[in-house]
Amino acid sequence: MTSNPREDDDGTQISRRRFVTGTLAAGAAAAGAGGAASADAAATKHNKKPKPKRHKPASTTRSADVVVVGAGISGLTAARAVRAAGHSVIVLEARGRVGGRCFSRPLGVPGASDVANMGATFVGPTQTEILGLMSELGIPKFDVYSAGSLLYYESGKLSRYTGTIPPSSDPTAVLELGAGMSQIDQMASTVPLDKPWAAPNAGAWDSITVETWSEQNLLSADAQKLFALAVEAILSVEPRDVSFLYLLFYIHAAGNIEVLIDNAGTGGAQDFRVSGGTQGIAVKMADQLGRKHVLLNNPVRLLSQGRKSIVAHADKATVTAKRAIVAIPPHLAGRIAYEPRMAAVRDQLTQRVPVGSLIKTIAVYDTPFWRDEGLNGQVTSDQGPVKATFDASPASGTPGVLLGFIDGDDARALDDKSDAERASAALASYVRYFGKEAGNPRAYLDQVWANEIYTGGCPVGIMPPGVMTEYAYALRESSGRIHWAGTETATVWTGYMDGAVQAGKRAAAEALAEL
To answer: Please, what is the angle between helix 128-137 and helix 497-514, to 10°?
Structure first.
Protein backbone atom coordinates (compact mmCIF):
# COMPACT_ATOMS: atom_id res chain seq x y z
CA MET A 1 0.00 0.00 0.00
CA THR A 2 1.63 3.17 -1.11
CA SER A 3 1.42 6.58 0.40
CA ASN A 4 -1.32 8.50 -1.37
CA PRO A 5 -2.03 11.88 0.20
CA ARG A 6 -5.44 13.42 -0.37
CA GLU A 7 -7.58 16.13 1.14
CA ASP A 8 -9.99 15.14 3.89
CA ASP A 9 -13.30 16.85 4.56
CA ASP A 10 -11.61 19.52 6.68
CA GLY A 11 -9.04 20.42 4.03
CA THR A 12 -6.08 18.79 5.78
CA GLN A 13 -3.90 16.21 4.05
CA ILE A 14 -4.10 12.56 5.06
CA SER A 15 -1.58 9.85 4.28
CA ARG A 16 -2.89 6.34 3.52
CA ARG A 17 0.34 4.88 4.91
CA ARG A 18 -0.42 6.46 8.30
CA PHE A 19 -3.61 4.45 8.65
CA VAL A 20 -2.05 1.24 7.32
CA THR A 21 1.23 0.97 9.16
CA GLY A 22 1.77 3.48 11.92
CA THR A 23 4.46 2.48 14.38
CA LEU A 24 3.62 -1.22 14.61
CA ALA A 25 4.50 -2.19 11.05
CA ALA A 26 7.99 -0.69 10.99
CA GLY A 27 10.37 -3.12 9.38
CA ALA A 28 7.52 -5.35 8.28
CA ALA A 29 9.07 -6.18 4.94
CA ALA A 30 12.19 -7.76 6.46
CA ALA A 31 12.30 -11.50 5.90
CA GLY A 32 12.06 -13.44 9.15
CA ALA A 33 10.44 -10.58 11.03
CA GLY A 34 8.34 -11.87 13.89
CA GLY A 35 5.83 -9.04 14.25
CA ALA A 36 6.18 -5.67 15.89
CA ALA A 37 7.35 -5.74 19.48
CA SER A 38 6.41 -3.20 22.08
CA ALA A 39 8.99 -0.98 23.76
CA ASP A 40 8.50 -2.86 27.00
CA ALA A 41 9.17 -6.20 25.29
CA ALA A 42 12.33 -4.86 23.71
CA ALA A 43 13.55 -3.56 27.06
CA THR A 44 12.88 -6.90 28.72
CA LYS A 45 14.75 -8.69 25.94
CA HIS A 46 17.84 -6.67 26.77
CA ASN A 47 17.46 -7.28 30.52
CA LYS A 48 16.44 -3.72 31.22
CA LYS A 49 13.57 -3.01 33.52
CA PRO A 50 11.02 -0.97 31.54
CA LYS A 51 10.22 2.39 33.02
CA PRO A 52 6.58 2.91 34.00
CA LYS A 53 4.73 4.97 31.42
CA ARG A 54 3.42 8.22 32.80
CA HIS A 55 -0.05 9.31 31.85
CA LYS A 56 0.51 12.71 30.27
CA PRO A 57 -2.25 15.30 30.15
CA ALA A 58 -4.23 15.16 26.93
CA SER A 59 -2.97 17.61 24.32
CA THR A 60 -6.17 17.59 22.26
CA THR A 61 -9.69 18.33 23.44
CA ARG A 62 -12.56 17.51 21.11
CA SER A 63 -16.30 17.08 21.16
CA ALA A 64 -18.63 14.97 19.04
CA ASP A 65 -22.04 13.39 19.17
CA VAL A 66 -20.46 9.92 19.46
CA VAL A 67 -16.98 8.78 20.46
CA VAL A 68 -15.88 5.34 19.26
CA VAL A 69 -13.16 3.37 21.05
CA GLY A 70 -11.29 1.15 18.61
CA ALA A 71 -10.56 1.54 14.89
CA GLY A 72 -11.03 -2.05 13.85
CA ILE A 73 -13.69 -3.16 11.38
CA SER A 74 -16.45 -2.95 14.00
CA GLY A 75 -15.56 0.47 15.38
CA LEU A 76 -15.07 2.03 11.96
CA THR A 77 -18.33 0.50 10.74
CA ALA A 78 -20.10 2.10 13.72
CA ALA A 79 -18.42 5.46 13.09
CA ARG A 80 -19.36 5.31 9.42
CA ALA A 81 -23.02 4.66 10.32
CA VAL A 82 -23.06 7.57 12.76
CA ARG A 83 -21.58 9.90 10.13
CA ALA A 84 -24.07 8.65 7.51
CA ALA A 85 -26.92 9.57 9.88
CA GLY A 86 -25.69 13.16 9.97
CA HIS A 87 -23.97 13.12 13.36
CA SER A 88 -20.40 13.91 14.31
CA VAL A 89 -18.04 11.16 15.43
CA ILE A 90 -14.47 10.77 16.66
CA VAL A 91 -12.64 7.43 16.78
CA LEU A 92 -9.89 6.82 19.33
CA GLU A 93 -7.43 4.04 18.45
CA ALA A 94 -4.71 2.74 20.75
CA ARG A 95 -2.43 1.49 17.98
CA GLY A 96 -0.51 3.48 15.42
CA ARG A 97 -2.65 1.94 12.68
CA VAL A 98 -6.25 1.08 11.94
CA GLY A 99 -7.62 -2.42 11.38
CA GLY A 100 -7.34 -4.13 14.77
CA ARG A 101 -7.17 -7.85 14.08
CA CYS A 102 -6.93 -7.07 10.35
CA PHE A 103 -3.24 -6.45 9.75
CA SER A 104 -1.70 -6.62 6.27
CA ARG A 105 2.07 -6.45 5.75
CA PRO A 106 4.30 -6.41 2.66
CA LEU A 107 5.30 -9.90 1.55
CA GLY A 108 8.96 -9.10 2.06
CA VAL A 109 10.24 -9.80 -1.45
CA PRO A 110 11.11 -7.21 -4.14
CA GLY A 111 8.41 -6.60 -6.73
CA ALA A 112 5.62 -8.41 -4.86
CA SER A 113 2.48 -6.29 -5.10
CA ASP A 114 0.31 -8.41 -2.81
CA VAL A 115 0.33 -8.37 0.99
CA ALA A 116 0.50 -10.91 3.78
CA ASN A 117 -2.60 -10.98 5.97
CA MET A 118 -1.29 -11.56 9.48
CA GLY A 119 -4.76 -11.56 11.03
CA ALA A 120 -8.17 -11.91 9.38
CA THR A 121 -7.71 -13.40 5.90
CA PHE A 122 -10.74 -15.12 4.40
CA VAL A 123 -14.29 -14.21 3.39
CA GLY A 124 -17.09 -16.68 2.69
CA PRO A 125 -20.13 -16.44 0.38
CA THR A 126 -22.66 -16.40 3.23
CA GLN A 127 -20.92 -13.49 4.97
CA THR A 128 -23.22 -10.89 3.51
CA GLU A 129 -22.34 -8.02 5.86
CA ILE A 130 -18.63 -7.90 5.04
CA LEU A 131 -19.25 -8.60 1.35
CA GLY A 132 -21.76 -5.75 1.26
CA LEU A 133 -19.29 -3.40 2.93
CA MET A 134 -16.55 -4.38 0.49
CA SER A 135 -18.91 -3.69 -2.40
CA GLU A 136 -19.73 -0.23 -1.02
CA LEU A 137 -16.04 0.54 -0.65
CA GLY A 138 -15.15 -0.79 -4.10
CA ILE A 139 -12.90 -3.56 -2.75
CA PRO A 140 -12.94 -6.75 -4.86
CA LYS A 141 -12.39 -10.33 -3.77
CA PHE A 142 -10.76 -13.31 -5.49
CA ASP A 143 -10.98 -17.07 -5.09
CA VAL A 144 -8.63 -18.94 -2.79
CA TYR A 145 -6.75 -21.52 -4.85
CA SER A 146 -8.49 -24.86 -4.30
CA ALA A 147 -7.74 -27.07 -7.33
CA GLY A 148 -6.05 -30.36 -6.49
CA SER A 149 -5.68 -32.57 -3.44
CA LEU A 150 -5.43 -31.76 0.25
CA LEU A 151 -2.89 -33.36 2.58
CA TYR A 152 -3.40 -35.09 5.92
CA TYR A 153 -0.37 -35.81 8.09
CA GLU A 154 -1.10 -38.42 10.75
CA SER A 155 1.37 -40.33 12.91
CA GLY A 156 4.23 -39.71 10.51
CA LYS A 157 2.29 -40.61 7.36
CA LEU A 158 1.28 -38.14 4.63
CA SER A 159 -1.91 -38.86 2.67
CA ARG A 160 -3.66 -37.07 -0.17
CA TYR A 161 -7.42 -36.69 -0.03
CA THR A 162 -10.46 -34.73 -1.15
CA GLY A 163 -13.57 -33.84 0.82
CA THR A 164 -14.08 -32.29 4.25
CA ILE A 165 -12.92 -34.94 6.75
CA PRO A 166 -9.31 -36.18 6.52
CA PRO A 167 -8.79 -39.92 5.93
CA SER A 168 -8.00 -41.29 9.38
CA SER A 169 -6.05 -44.54 9.68
CA ASP A 170 -9.17 -45.84 11.43
CA PRO A 171 -11.98 -45.75 8.80
CA THR A 172 -14.67 -45.99 11.46
CA ALA A 173 -13.40 -42.71 12.96
CA VAL A 174 -14.44 -40.79 9.84
CA LEU A 175 -17.94 -42.23 9.98
CA GLU A 176 -18.15 -41.57 13.71
CA LEU A 177 -17.01 -37.98 13.33
CA GLY A 178 -19.49 -37.40 10.51
CA ALA A 179 -22.32 -38.62 12.74
CA GLY A 180 -21.00 -36.51 15.62
CA MET A 181 -20.94 -33.40 13.44
CA SER A 182 -24.56 -33.97 12.42
CA GLN A 183 -25.48 -34.29 16.10
CA ILE A 184 -23.62 -31.07 16.89
CA ASP A 185 -25.41 -29.20 14.10
CA GLN A 186 -28.77 -30.35 15.45
CA MET A 187 -27.92 -29.21 18.99
CA ALA A 188 -26.48 -25.91 17.74
CA SER A 189 -29.73 -25.14 15.91
CA THR A 190 -31.56 -25.08 19.27
CA VAL A 191 -29.31 -22.33 20.69
CA PRO A 192 -30.96 -18.88 20.32
CA LEU A 193 -28.45 -16.54 18.73
CA ASP A 194 -29.58 -13.50 20.71
CA LYS A 195 -29.94 -15.41 24.00
CA PRO A 196 -27.81 -18.56 23.92
CA TRP A 197 -28.08 -18.88 27.69
CA ALA A 198 -31.79 -19.59 27.17
CA ALA A 199 -31.22 -22.76 25.13
CA PRO A 200 -33.23 -25.74 26.45
CA ASN A 201 -30.07 -27.56 27.56
CA ALA A 202 -27.96 -24.48 28.26
CA GLY A 203 -27.14 -25.39 31.84
CA ALA A 204 -25.89 -28.87 31.00
CA TRP A 205 -23.96 -27.77 27.91
CA ASP A 206 -22.35 -24.81 29.69
CA SER A 207 -21.19 -27.00 32.57
CA ILE A 208 -18.83 -29.06 30.39
CA THR A 209 -15.94 -28.36 28.06
CA VAL A 210 -15.83 -29.34 24.41
CA GLU A 211 -13.25 -31.97 25.36
CA THR A 212 -15.64 -33.53 27.88
CA TRP A 213 -18.40 -33.78 25.26
CA SER A 214 -15.96 -35.35 22.81
CA GLU A 215 -14.77 -37.95 25.33
CA GLN A 216 -18.36 -38.84 26.22
CA ASN A 217 -19.74 -39.01 22.68
CA LEU A 218 -16.91 -39.93 20.30
CA LEU A 219 -15.75 -43.44 21.15
CA SER A 220 -12.61 -43.74 19.04
CA ALA A 221 -9.41 -41.87 19.82
CA ASP A 222 -8.99 -40.98 16.14
CA ALA A 223 -12.43 -39.36 15.97
CA GLN A 224 -11.63 -37.35 19.09
CA LYS A 225 -8.32 -36.29 17.55
CA LEU A 226 -9.92 -35.11 14.30
CA PHE A 227 -12.58 -33.21 16.24
CA ALA A 228 -9.90 -31.54 18.39
CA LEU A 229 -8.03 -30.43 15.28
CA ALA A 230 -11.23 -28.84 13.96
CA VAL A 231 -11.82 -26.96 17.23
CA GLU A 232 -8.22 -25.71 17.29
CA ALA A 233 -8.53 -24.50 13.70
CA ILE A 234 -11.79 -22.67 14.40
CA LEU A 235 -11.04 -20.99 17.75
CA SER A 236 -7.24 -21.34 18.27
CA VAL A 237 -7.82 -22.95 21.68
CA GLU A 238 -7.73 -26.49 23.00
CA PRO A 239 -11.06 -28.33 23.42
CA ARG A 240 -10.52 -28.29 27.20
CA ASP A 241 -10.51 -24.46 27.17
CA VAL A 242 -14.00 -23.72 25.92
CA SER A 243 -17.60 -24.31 26.97
CA PHE A 244 -19.56 -26.75 24.84
CA LEU A 245 -22.49 -24.30 24.86
CA TYR A 246 -20.23 -21.57 23.50
CA LEU A 247 -19.06 -23.83 20.68
CA LEU A 248 -22.67 -24.65 19.77
CA PHE A 249 -23.53 -20.94 19.72
CA TYR A 250 -20.47 -20.16 17.59
CA ILE A 251 -21.42 -22.88 15.11
CA HIS A 252 -25.04 -21.70 14.89
CA ALA A 253 -23.85 -18.12 14.33
CA ALA A 254 -22.00 -19.35 11.22
CA GLY A 255 -24.80 -21.62 10.03
CA ASN A 256 -23.35 -25.07 10.72
CA ILE A 257 -20.05 -26.72 11.54
CA GLU A 258 -19.41 -27.70 7.95
CA VAL A 259 -19.31 -24.09 6.74
CA LEU A 260 -16.64 -23.38 9.37
CA ILE A 261 -14.34 -26.25 8.44
CA ASP A 262 -15.09 -26.79 4.74
CA ASN A 263 -12.19 -26.58 2.33
CA ALA A 264 -11.68 -23.53 0.15
CA GLY A 265 -13.95 -23.47 -2.87
CA THR A 266 -16.83 -25.39 -1.27
CA GLY A 267 -19.04 -22.54 -0.01
CA GLY A 268 -17.46 -22.29 3.43
CA ALA A 269 -15.72 -19.55 5.38
CA GLN A 270 -12.42 -19.89 3.49
CA ASP A 271 -13.56 -19.34 -0.12
CA PHE A 272 -12.33 -15.82 -0.92
CA ARG A 273 -9.45 -13.45 -0.28
CA VAL A 274 -9.71 -9.65 -0.16
CA SER A 275 -7.81 -7.85 -2.90
CA GLY A 276 -5.17 -5.64 -1.32
CA GLY A 277 -5.52 -7.30 2.07
CA THR A 278 -8.18 -7.22 4.77
CA GLN A 279 -6.66 -4.20 6.51
CA GLY A 280 -7.48 -2.23 3.38
CA ILE A 281 -11.16 -2.40 4.36
CA ALA A 282 -10.41 -0.49 7.56
CA VAL A 283 -8.07 1.89 5.76
CA LYS A 284 -10.77 2.90 3.28
CA MET A 285 -13.30 3.52 6.04
CA ALA A 286 -10.77 5.59 7.98
CA ASP A 287 -9.96 7.55 4.82
CA GLN A 288 -13.63 8.39 4.43
CA LEU A 289 -13.93 9.57 8.02
CA GLY A 290 -10.82 11.75 7.69
CA ARG A 291 -7.67 12.19 9.70
CA LYS A 292 -9.12 14.66 12.21
CA HIS A 293 -11.77 12.11 13.15
CA VAL A 294 -9.58 9.01 13.60
CA LEU A 295 -6.97 9.68 16.29
CA LEU A 296 -4.22 7.05 16.39
CA ASN A 297 -1.87 6.25 19.29
CA ASN A 298 -4.64 7.13 21.73
CA PRO A 299 -5.45 4.28 24.11
CA VAL A 300 -8.49 5.20 26.18
CA ARG A 301 -7.77 5.02 29.91
CA LEU A 302 -11.02 6.33 31.40
CA LEU A 303 -14.66 6.72 30.36
CA SER A 304 -16.46 9.14 32.65
CA GLN A 305 -20.24 9.51 32.41
CA GLY A 306 -22.22 12.53 33.57
CA ARG A 307 -25.88 13.49 33.42
CA LYS A 308 -25.63 14.90 29.91
CA SER A 309 -22.37 13.62 28.43
CA ILE A 310 -19.59 11.07 28.51
CA VAL A 311 -15.90 11.92 28.40
CA ALA A 312 -13.24 9.64 26.93
CA HIS A 313 -9.78 10.27 28.36
CA ALA A 314 -7.01 8.99 26.08
CA ASP A 315 -3.25 9.49 26.12
CA LYS A 316 -3.23 12.45 23.73
CA ALA A 317 -6.86 13.45 23.52
CA THR A 318 -9.97 14.08 25.57
CA VAL A 319 -13.29 13.69 23.78
CA THR A 320 -16.65 14.80 25.16
CA ALA A 321 -19.65 13.13 23.55
CA LYS A 322 -23.28 12.29 24.07
CA ARG A 323 -22.74 8.56 23.52
CA ALA A 324 -19.78 6.16 23.39
CA ILE A 325 -19.32 2.94 21.43
CA VAL A 326 -16.62 0.61 22.76
CA ALA A 327 -15.56 -1.65 19.90
CA ILE A 328 -12.70 -3.69 21.37
CA PRO A 329 -12.56 -7.26 22.74
CA PRO A 330 -14.20 -7.72 26.17
CA HIS A 331 -10.95 -8.40 28.01
CA LEU A 332 -9.50 -5.11 26.71
CA ALA A 333 -12.69 -3.22 27.56
CA GLY A 334 -12.17 -4.46 31.11
CA ARG A 335 -8.85 -2.61 31.30
CA ILE A 336 -10.53 0.78 30.86
CA ALA A 337 -11.50 2.63 34.05
CA TYR A 338 -15.14 3.68 34.30
CA GLU A 339 -16.84 6.44 36.28
CA PRO A 340 -19.25 5.48 37.66
CA ARG A 341 -18.00 1.91 37.80
CA MET A 342 -19.42 -0.77 35.55
CA ALA A 343 -22.16 -3.05 36.87
CA ALA A 344 -20.54 -5.96 38.67
CA VAL A 345 -21.79 -8.51 36.13
CA ARG A 346 -20.22 -6.57 33.24
CA ASP A 347 -16.92 -6.25 35.08
CA GLN A 348 -16.98 -9.95 35.94
CA LEU A 349 -17.74 -10.83 32.32
CA THR A 350 -14.67 -8.99 31.03
CA GLN A 351 -12.51 -11.06 33.38
CA ARG A 352 -13.84 -14.31 31.90
CA VAL A 353 -13.49 -13.96 28.12
CA PRO A 354 -9.93 -14.95 27.16
CA VAL A 355 -8.70 -14.75 23.56
CA GLY A 356 -7.43 -17.66 21.50
CA SER A 357 -3.71 -18.33 21.13
CA LEU A 358 -2.60 -17.89 17.53
CA ILE A 359 0.59 -17.34 15.57
CA LYS A 360 0.12 -16.83 11.84
CA THR A 361 3.06 -17.76 9.66
CA ILE A 362 3.79 -16.80 6.05
CA ALA A 363 6.41 -18.36 3.77
CA VAL A 364 7.06 -16.79 0.37
CA TYR A 365 8.53 -18.71 -2.60
CA ASP A 366 9.28 -17.87 -6.24
CA THR A 367 6.31 -19.95 -7.38
CA PRO A 368 3.57 -22.07 -5.78
CA PHE A 369 5.51 -25.25 -6.52
CA TRP A 370 3.02 -27.47 -4.72
CA ARG A 371 0.46 -26.80 -7.46
CA ASP A 372 2.70 -28.57 -9.97
CA GLU A 373 2.37 -31.67 -7.80
CA GLY A 374 -1.44 -31.53 -7.86
CA LEU A 375 -1.76 -30.03 -4.37
CA ASN A 376 -3.86 -27.02 -3.37
CA GLY A 377 -1.74 -26.11 -0.33
CA GLN A 378 -4.31 -27.12 2.29
CA VAL A 379 -2.99 -29.34 5.07
CA THR A 380 -4.40 -30.82 8.28
CA SER A 381 -1.88 -32.38 10.62
CA ASP A 382 -1.77 -34.09 14.00
CA GLN A 383 1.78 -32.83 14.55
CA GLY A 384 2.65 -29.21 15.22
CA PRO A 385 3.50 -26.55 15.48
CA VAL A 386 1.84 -25.73 12.13
CA LYS A 387 -1.21 -27.99 11.95
CA ALA A 388 -3.11 -26.23 9.15
CA THR A 389 -1.98 -24.48 5.98
CA PHE A 390 -3.52 -22.72 2.97
CA ASP A 391 -2.30 -21.44 -0.36
CA ALA A 392 -2.17 -17.67 0.20
CA SER A 393 -0.63 -16.76 -3.16
CA PRO A 394 -1.83 -13.62 -4.99
CA ALA A 395 -4.57 -13.94 -7.60
CA SER A 396 -1.84 -13.92 -10.24
CA GLY A 397 -0.19 -16.97 -8.66
CA THR A 398 3.20 -15.29 -8.25
CA PRO A 399 4.96 -15.40 -5.89
CA GLY A 400 3.92 -18.60 -4.18
CA VAL A 401 2.76 -18.07 -0.61
CA LEU A 402 1.91 -20.59 2.11
CA LEU A 403 -0.09 -19.52 5.14
CA GLY A 404 0.29 -21.60 8.28
CA PHE A 405 -1.63 -21.55 11.57
CA ILE A 406 -0.07 -22.29 14.95
CA ASP A 407 -2.88 -22.66 17.48
CA GLY A 408 -3.54 -23.32 21.14
CA ASP A 409 -0.80 -25.12 23.06
CA ASP A 410 1.58 -25.00 20.10
CA ALA A 411 1.29 -21.20 19.97
CA ARG A 412 1.74 -20.84 23.71
CA ALA A 413 4.95 -22.86 23.52
CA LEU A 414 6.38 -20.51 20.88
CA ASP A 415 4.97 -17.11 21.89
CA ASP A 416 8.09 -16.06 23.79
CA LYS A 417 10.67 -17.80 21.62
CA SER A 418 13.04 -15.86 19.38
CA ASP A 419 12.18 -14.98 15.79
CA ALA A 420 14.69 -17.57 14.58
CA GLU A 421 13.29 -20.33 16.79
CA ARG A 422 9.73 -19.71 15.62
CA ALA A 423 10.80 -19.61 11.97
CA SER A 424 12.76 -22.84 12.32
CA ALA A 425 9.84 -24.63 13.97
CA ALA A 426 7.31 -23.42 11.40
CA LEU A 427 9.46 -24.21 8.37
CA ALA A 428 10.11 -27.70 9.72
CA SER A 429 6.35 -28.24 9.49
CA TYR A 430 6.27 -26.88 5.92
CA VAL A 431 9.07 -29.27 4.90
CA ARG A 432 7.20 -32.18 6.48
CA TYR A 433 4.22 -31.49 4.22
CA PHE A 434 5.72 -30.10 1.01
CA GLY A 435 9.30 -31.34 0.88
CA LYS A 436 12.76 -29.76 1.09
CA GLU A 437 11.90 -26.89 -1.25
CA ALA A 438 9.53 -25.54 1.41
CA GLY A 439 12.46 -25.06 3.80
CA ASN A 440 14.05 -22.28 1.74
CA PRO A 441 11.53 -19.48 1.31
CA ARG A 442 12.50 -16.11 -0.08
CA ALA A 443 10.89 -14.56 2.98
CA TYR A 444 9.32 -15.73 6.22
CA LEU A 445 6.96 -13.62 8.35
CA ASP A 446 4.92 -14.36 11.41
CA GLN A 447 2.60 -12.57 13.81
CA VAL A 448 2.50 -13.50 17.49
CA TRP A 449 -0.89 -12.15 18.48
CA ALA A 450 -0.41 -12.86 22.19
CA ASN A 451 2.37 -10.26 22.19
CA GLU A 452 0.16 -7.52 20.73
CA ILE A 453 -0.59 -5.38 23.79
CA TYR A 454 -3.85 -4.08 22.30
CA THR A 455 -5.07 -7.51 21.20
CA GLY A 456 -3.61 -10.15 23.51
CA GLY A 457 -4.47 -13.06 21.21
CA CYS A 458 -6.51 -14.03 18.18
CA PRO A 459 -8.91 -14.68 16.51
CA VAL A 460 -11.74 -14.13 19.03
CA GLY A 461 -12.63 -14.03 22.70
CA ILE A 462 -14.09 -17.36 23.85
CA MET A 463 -16.13 -18.40 26.88
CA PRO A 464 -15.05 -21.19 29.24
CA PRO A 465 -17.69 -23.24 31.09
CA GLY A 466 -20.12 -21.29 33.24
CA VAL A 467 -19.60 -17.91 31.60
CA MET A 468 -22.33 -17.92 28.97
CA THR A 469 -25.17 -18.86 31.33
CA GLU A 470 -24.06 -16.57 34.17
CA TYR A 471 -22.60 -13.47 32.51
CA ALA A 472 -23.16 -13.37 28.75
CA TYR A 473 -26.38 -11.37 28.97
CA ALA A 474 -24.20 -8.34 29.82
CA LEU A 475 -22.19 -8.67 26.60
CA ARG A 476 -24.40 -6.35 24.51
CA GLU A 477 -26.45 -4.65 27.24
CA SER A 478 -25.65 -0.92 27.17
CA SER A 479 -24.11 0.66 30.27
CA GLY A 480 -25.63 4.10 30.58
CA ARG A 481 -24.22 6.07 27.65
CA ILE A 482 -21.91 3.25 26.57
CA HIS A 483 -22.78 0.78 23.82
CA TRP A 484 -20.73 -2.34 23.07
CA ALA A 485 -19.50 -3.48 19.65
CA GLY A 486 -16.75 -5.81 18.40
CA THR A 487 -17.13 -9.20 16.72
CA GLU A 488 -17.54 -10.92 20.11
CA THR A 489 -20.91 -9.17 20.47
CA ALA A 490 -22.25 -10.33 17.10
CA THR A 491 -25.06 -12.86 16.74
CA VAL A 492 -24.21 -13.86 13.16
CA TRP A 493 -20.70 -14.91 12.13
CA THR A 494 -19.33 -14.15 15.59
CA GLY A 495 -15.54 -13.99 15.52
CA TYR A 496 -15.32 -12.99 11.87
CA MET A 497 -15.16 -9.68 10.00
CA ASP A 498 -18.79 -10.25 9.04
CA GLY A 499 -19.75 -10.32 12.72
CA ALA A 500 -17.68 -7.19 13.34
CA VAL A 501 -19.70 -5.31 10.72
CA GLN A 502 -23.01 -6.53 12.14
CA ALA A 503 -22.00 -5.54 15.67
CA GLY A 504 -20.83 -2.09 14.56
CA LYS A 505 -24.13 -1.40 12.83
CA ARG A 506 -26.14 -2.57 15.85
CA ALA A 507 -24.17 -0.45 18.32
CA ALA A 508 -24.46 2.59 16.05
CA ALA A 509 -28.22 2.12 15.78
CA GLU A 510 -28.47 1.94 19.58
CA ALA A 511 -26.46 5.15 20.01
CA LEU A 512 -28.33 7.00 17.26
CA ALA A 513 -31.67 6.10 18.84
CA GLU A 514 -30.59 7.97 21.98
CA LEU A 515 -29.29 11.15 20.31
So the answer is: 80
